[in-house]
Design brief:
three-stranded antiparallel β-sheet, elongated, mainly beta, 2 helices, 2 domains, seven-stranded antiparallel β-sheet, single chain, 192 residues
Length: 192
């Protein structure tokens, strides 16, 4: 199994005050292991091709095409190629793949807005000291045209989805007039 060292939240100096997420770094690998020693260095082992590609200036001893390299941490950052990365992850190649290779977005089947919400239930997690999502309900509501129902979503590729709601142009829609069957809709004390 191969491992990868994924660097992110890069900055120009270790103590730079970050106003955003910083720079995305490289994904170094494949590696055979990654080891952190007392929070002072990260040791990696990999093939000559990988280590020379990512650390061309480092003096690395190779034996049978495999070498080890120790990266000295700078404060709490991992330095690489002139940047300092505040976060890094070690994962397999599978973990680096997007969960969905054909990402989609639900949009309203009437007005086309992506501003859809579902009601949910949350419970207090005493150990984590935060609200944790317990479940969502089937009913979906379009915040744009106020359509509500169990199957109002139309799924489109992300590339075809409208921009986030705060960037959507105003729509001039004539929504279909629907009548509610007796007993549907409004309930005593509020919307149904």
């Amino acid at each position: 199994m191969s491992l990868y060292l994924y660097l992110f939240h890069g900055r120009a100096t270790p103590d730079q005050d970050m106003s955003d997420w910083g720079a995305a770094g490289p994904t170094i690998g494949p590696l055979s292991y990654v080891h952190t020693t007392y929070g002072s260095e990260v040791k990696i082992r990999g093939s000559k091709a990988v280590l020379e590609k990512f650390f061309p200036q480092a003096e690395i001893h190779f034996h049978d095409g495999v070498g080890e390299h120790a990266i000295q941490l700078a404060g709490d950052c991992l330095p690489h190629d002139g940047k300092f990365y505040g976060d890094w992850s070690v994962c397999t190649a599978d973990a680096m793949e997007p969960v969905n290779r054909n990402p989609v977005t639900p949009i309203c089947d009437v007005c086309g807005s992506a501003d859809l919400v579902k009601n949910a239930a949350a419970v207090w997690d005493r150990d984590r000291q935060e609200w944790s999502l317990l479940s969502t309900y089937d009913s979906t509501t379009c915040q744009r045209c106020e359509r509500e129902g169990d199957a109002i979503e139309r799924w489109v590729p992300n590339a075809d989805a409208p921009p986030a709601d705060d960037q959507q142009p105003e729509l001039d829609l004539e929504l279909p007039v629907t009548t509610k069957a007796e007993g549907e809709g409004e309930r005593e004390g509020g919307r149904g």
